Amino acid sequence: MFTGASGYSQDLQNVISRAVAIAELPITVLTNQEATLQSQSSALANIDNDISALQAAVQAVGTAVGGSYAADVSNPGVVSASVGEGAVAGTYSIEVDSVGAYASSLSAGNWTGTSSDAGGTYSLVIGDNSYGIQSADGSAGSVAAAINAQYGDQVQATVVNVGSDASPSLRVSLQATSLGAQTLDIQDSSGTGLQAQGPDGSLASYIVDGSGETVTSASRSATIATGLTIHLQSGDPGNPVTVTVSGTDSALSGALASFTSAYNTVVTDLQAQRGQSAGHLQGQSILSQITQAIDNVATYFTSSESGINGLAQLGLKLGENGQLTFNAQTLDTAYSGNSAAVASFLGSATGGGWLESATNSLTNLEDPIRGLVKNEETSLQSRTTSIGNQITTKQGQLATMKTSLTKQMAAADALIATIEQQD
After folding, report:
1. Residue 243 and residue 147: Cα distance in Å, rounded?
2. How far is it, in rounded angstroms, from Cα 385 to Cα 168?
3. pLDDT in tens, the chain (423 residues)
4. What share of the chain is helix, strand, coil (3-state, %, to 5)?
5. DSSP 8-class letter at 324
6. Do residues 184 and 126 make contact, with C-beta atoms less than 8 angstroms apart?
């Protein structure tokens, strides 16, 4: 605030105030533009999150189509099973001889590193192969972290304290990620092994459908038929376990219910941007583009002799308000009447049908590189940043102008005060 000694000091202050007010006008305009862009970004981010949830819901429907069969296991303590795309009804027999074992090793002594390995350089030995590892400082924690980061697909490293809290004894524990016998060691720069080998690893072994042929595997999970994966839990030689796969629409019904909810959430988001109490995206082209893509998901229709041509025949009805409702009984009727027709209509994400159409529509919005929503979010952020930089620049210019003008007015006021004193 300028203060002076002359009788014109208030007039001079008014000159400064008017000049500052005029100079602030462009800043005010830019600030309003920045606030609008920020509001648009916030609204679009909210819609983006809900579209992502809808995309996940569509993917879940795809999983449920393949998972429309359920597996019943006679002895879950020995074998469990999961079904996926392509599964068909059937009965299977699994005799588990052994679930196998993972090879392991533990540091022979307290891990201290060596002076020659101060930089953390070691070799990891897995079977007949040796790999160089570079840790941060040679400590047990940094060596384990380096192993997991570089070779975690083959072996998992952890640090365990076999001592007490008062007298810790830290060891690096290694365990193979696949079943079977193999050496696991860590060697220092001199080639000295630092690990004591644990119990030998071994492969899992089992017999399918009483074939008499023993299958060995480096994994406790195995696909024994299209869409059917078994998971070995424990060995029980001589006692086959029965796995029965039968059709059910419970998974699909749950997935379609979740899809309905996710779809309606996005529609509600879009509707909030229109009308008398419209949001900040009203009139923006991205709003129309999103609306068209979302509409395509709900209105997909195909000609088929199977009788399943649209979502309505699966219990999904599009109301005049743009919202979907789901009737599980309608789905039950369609599924029990012709489950193959239901699966054919839905298709898969890459194999045609509603799932491919819906997936493509949502990918066009959500793809990290070419997605319309992602690109618009990037554009809004870029424009917001640009305006923010302009505001900062103009604020600096305003501060400089104000300082300079204040000095000029102070000089003028001092001169006027001197003249007034002479009078």
Report:
1. 39
2. 52
3. 667 778 888 888 888 889 989 988 999 999 999 998 898 899 999 999 999 999 999 999 998 886 567 889 999 999 999 988 788 888 999 999 999 999 999 999 998 865 445 556 889 999 999 999 888 888 899 999 999 999 999 999 999 999 998 999 999 999 999 999 999 999 988 888 999 999 999 999 999 999 999 999 999 999 999 989 999 999 999 999 999 988 788 889 999 999 999 999 999 999 999 888 888 898 899 999 999 999 999 999 998 777 799 999 999 999 999 999 999 999 999 988 888 899 889 999 998 999 999 999 999 999 999 999 999 999 999 999 999 999 999 999 999 999 999 899 888 888 888 888 886
4. 45, 25, 30
5. E
6. yes
Tokens of 242: 């029965």
Nearest CA-CA partner of 289 in 48, 42, 39, 33 = 48
Q: Which residue has the tokens 């060697």?
A: 187
**Of 179, 182, 53, nearest to 105 (Cα)?**
182
Contact 342/334 with Cβ under 8 angstroms?
yes
Of 267, 343, 285, the C-alpha closest to 66 is: 343
Ordered strands of the 221-225 beta sheet: 79-83, 228-232, 221-225
Tokens describing residue 272: 């909030």
The residue type of 64 is: A
Determine contact, residues 216/203, Cβ cutoff 8 Å.
yes
C-alpha 417/C-alpha 405 separation (Å) is 18
- C-alpha closest to that of 110 among 192, 196, 175, 200: 196
C-alpha–C-alpha distance, residues 221 and 186, integer Å:
29
Rounded to whole angstroms, what are the CA distances from 145 to 156, 180, 187, 396, 417? 9, 24, 16, 48, 76
Q: Report the alpha-carbon distance of residue 204 to residue 219 in Å, rounded.
A: 7
Instruction: Give long-range contacts, CB 8 A cutoff, 24+ apart: 415-421.
Output: 416/6, 416/7, 416/8, 417/4, 417/5, 417/6, 420/6, 420/7
Give the orientation angle of helix 9-66 with respect to helix 250-271, to 10 degrees: 160
CA separation for the pair 116, 189 (Å, rounded):
7
**Tokens at 312, concatenated:** 């309505």
Beta-strand pair 102-107/170-179 = antiparallel
| Spatial separation of the C-alpha atoms in residues 109 and 103, rounded to whole Å | 19
